[in-house]
Write a structure and sequence with these properties.
heterodimer; A: 2 domains; 13 helices; B: Rossmann fold; 3 domains; 11 helices; about 35% helix
């Protein structure tokens, strides 16, 4: 395996580097808009846009790879007037996106993209729409020196510093960026624009190591993710917790939509006229009571407590069984999103408290 | 392939309502000519004077108050293959279902004052208008095949339904809250700037036009199945609304669907 290269770049060089990259790539970076919201935005004019690397983007990168509504194909119905036989033909519409550089991606969001890779690019069941967008992507991530208030990526082992997955990982060392190359494209980028970088010396490496150690000590949330997975696997979670959380869930779907690793979707045909239409994929959420509704109106899951159970067990139990790690990346976005307080931190602290008190399941 | 002989015949009827939904449909004027190409509109009081004995799709707007309206609706049902409830009044009673909380005489007194009560009791042309005990949605009288929600209806949903029926498939509307619409269009949550909203418990599909226009959701599209009103009520309480105001907010559009427990305090 190729070793990651360690380089150093002056703080002032980031924007000039991006300006060079913008000639051949589309740029997506967090930008603070006039309402004070930091969101990933397509940057068309670097000179008049200020990239905001100080705040956590409110939405993840998910919409750039898996849009909320995505036209998959057009379908045409040919009807033979003589026999009345119908013939369907499908015309796939691949997304037409330019190679894109995603700048200022936090470790949790980078990790979430790697998780969605497992969902959409699993072995030979590859999703062409996702793959098209994913192949065109270069990630310049930022390691979190100072985790935000609701972050707990140390507990989910998806941050605050990454070791792979990114193309370039930047670490803020005060007056300079410590640059690590991850994938080959990132290494190529540092060779193409070698004038911006210089090799890192021992002092830089030590400073970066120090920054990582300090970052790990700065988390404000103590979340026992592994304990939660263990308790769920042992079926030691009292039913009353799900009842309590369900009674507060207002079914708005906010947690699933803001979650960078939630990938449930629905596919609908939208007829344009009698001769055809479009097939559209749109986000769905397992917390919606209609999520498991079947033809004929039967719902196989108890809508009262089943939907909340489904969401948390998927993240903390089923994915641990399948992939060996929870699919929560600890970004903490669902914490600020839910009006009823049904979020990952609350759920995990509830079940770990119940586990400490020795509560048995099914009470 | 257009089969001109088999153009479905569609018709529009109005019960107790403001007829705004029919106007919303006439507002599809940019594609209305194309639509008329595909269907044959055989009865539409607001746009034409002809009538027809039978039709494929009947759009019925408004709620049912008097028994003669119910009879008329049963007649429409018998003449039509599909019956679509057009708009909030037809789907769940809308604003006028507020009257369900009180007796007819009390209603009249609230609206027109005490001195009209005497006149109502003596004038036999006037009283039948008030004598209904309950404002009913269409499905309380006949079988309704599809619901087009909203006050007024969303033209895109109307077109979706017509296209689906023309294509021979069943139209479907996802039971998702207005919150989904806000996220789809990137609107900031109104709760974040101190306003309160009924979006979490209300059927989506409207494109969140009210929030886009700087207002809040008042729930005109009706209550979602399995809406968690207890939790939503708690949230509104936390945001400083007193119980009476909350009841008024619920009762504005959702009177036909909520129960006395959901909004207990309003007198």
């Amino acid at each position: 395996m190729m070793m990651n290269k360690n380089l150093v770049m002056n703080k002032d060089y980031l924007v000039p580097l991006l300006r060079k990259l913008a000639k051949t790539h589309r740029l997506v970076a967090p930008v603070r808009n006039e309402y004070g919201d930091t969101l990933f935005t397509i940057i068309t004019d670097l000179d008049r846009t200020e990239i905001d690397l100080d705040h956590q983007p409110q939405a993840s990168l998910k919409p750039y790879f898996f849009p909320q509504t995505d036209t998959l194909c057009r379908y045409v119905i040919d009807c033979d007037p003589a026999t009345g036989a119908m013939d369907y033909s499908f015309h796939v519409q691949l997304p037409q996106n330019r190679p894109t550089v995603y700048v200022g991606v936090r470790s949790c969001d980078m990790f979430a993209v790697m998780y969605t890779d497992m969902v959409f690019l699993h072995e030979h069941e590859r999703d062409v729409y996702y793959k098209q967008r994913r192949d065109n992507a270069i990630f310049i991530t930022i390691a979190c020196n100072t985790p935000f208030d609701n972050c707990f990526c140390n507990a989910t082992r998806s941050g605050p510093f990454l070791e792979s997955g990114f193309d370039l990982q930047l670490t803020d060392l005060g007056d300079r960026w410590f640059v690590e190359t991850g994938r080959a494209r990132g290494a190529g980028l540092t060779e193409d624009w070698a004038c911006f970088f210089r090799p890192a010396d021992e002092a830089d490496k030590r400073a970066q190591f120090q920054a990582e150690l300090e970052a790990r000590g700065r988390f404000k949330q103590l979340v026992h993710v592994d304990l939660a997975s263990k308790l769920l696997a042992e079926d030691k979670v009292p039913e009353s917790i799900f009842r309590d959380l369900s009674s507060r869930c207002q079914d708005c779907g906010g947690c699933a939509f803001i979650c960078p690793t939630c990938t449930c979707f629905n596919i609908t045909d939208q007829p344009r006229d009698e001769a055809g239409g479009e097939r559209v994929r749109s986000w769905d959420a397992c917390t919606f009571s209609g999520f498991t509704a079947m033809a004929g109106g039967h719902n196989s899951v108890d809508v009262e407590t089943g939907r909340i159970r489904r969401r948390f067990l998927h993240k903390l139990q089923y994915d641990v069984d399948r992939h060996g790690r929870p699919s929560c990346v600890g970004c903490g976005r669902c914490v600020g999103m839910c009006f009823g307080g049904v979020d990952m931190i609350r759920f995990i602290s509830m079940i770990s408290e119940a586990g400490e008190n020795g509560a048995e399941a099914g009470e | 392939m257009k089969n001109v002989l088999l153009r479905p015949r569609i018709s529009f009827f109005d019960m107790a309502g403001c007829e705004g939904c029919q106007l919303a449909i006439l507002d599809c004027e940019d594609i209305f000519l194309e639509l008329v190409d595909l269907v044959e509109i055989v009865e539409f009081r607001e746009a034409m004077s002809e009538t027809a004995p039978r039709f494929d799709i009947a759009f019925v707007e408004g709620s049912i108050h008097r028994e003669i309206d119910a009879d008329r609706l049963r007649d429409i049902r018998a003449r039509s293959r599909w019956l679509v409830a057009l708009g909030g009044c037809a789907c769940h009673g809308n604003v006028q279902a507020r009257a369900n909380g009180w007796s007819p005489a009390e209603n009249l007194q609230r609206v027109h004052g005490l001195d009209t009560v005497h006149r109502v009791q003596t004038d036999n042309r006037y009283w039948p208008l008030w004598a209904h005990t309950r404002v009913r949605a269409l499905h309380e009288v006949v079988k309704v095949d599809y619901l087009l929600r909203g006050c007024p209806v969303d033209r895109d949903e109307f077109l979706h339904l017509v296209k689906r029926l023309l294509a021979g498939s069943r139209p479907g509307f996802a039971a998702q809250p207005v919150c989904v619409e806000c996220r789809r269009h990137g609107h900031e949550c109104v709760f974040l700037h101190g306003e309160t909203c009924l979006g979490q418990v209300t059927w989506g599909g409207c494109g969140a036009v009210c929030i886009a226009g700087g207002y809040r959701c008042d729930g005109c599209r009706g209550l979602l199945p399995n809406a968690n009103l207890a939790s939503h009520r708690q949230l509104l309480r936390e945001r400083g609304l007193d119980p009476k105001t909350i009841d008024q907010r619920y009762r504005l559009f959702l009177s036909g669907e909520i129960t006395a427990q959901d909004a207990p305090d309003e007198q």
